[in-house]
Amino acid sequence: MVLTKTIKILLRAIFFMSASILFSCEEVLFIDCQKCLGSEPADVYIEVALNHNLEGVGITIYKGTLENGIIIGNYDTFSKNSFYRVTLNNNYTIVAEYSIKGKTYKAVNTIMPKVTFDEDSCSDPCYYVYNDKVQLRLKYSD
Q: Which of 34, 35, 58, 127 has the fewest beta carbons under 10 Å from its own?
C-alpha cells in the first residue's frame, strides 16, 4: 500500500518535470561544436532548401513580413540548397517561385536567424548560430 503510493507520487513528479521541460519557453539547443564561432557574428548565411527545377527557381527575400514589402534581394537559382547573407535577429520572409509545366507555384516561409553564446557544450566557449535553415520545397512537384 505504501509502496504503490510512493510509486504514484514518483510517477507524477516525473510526469510534471517532463512536461515542464517539454513546454518551457527556453529553446533547447544541441550545439554542433564544428559550427561554433570564436567571435559573435553580425550576419549569417541562411540555407534555403528547394526542389530541383530545370527551369530554375526565383527567390525573393523580404525583411519582416511579406505585407511590409521590403525586398532585400531577388535571386534565381538552379540549386537544391541556396545560401543568402542576412543579418542576425531579424525576421525574413522568403518566397520561392517555381515554374513547372507552364504553371507557377509559390512556397513561402519565414525565418529569424539567431545566435547564442555557449560556455559548456564544447571544449571552448563559443557563439552558435541557429534557426538559419528554411524549407521551401514543394510537397508535390510532378
A: 34
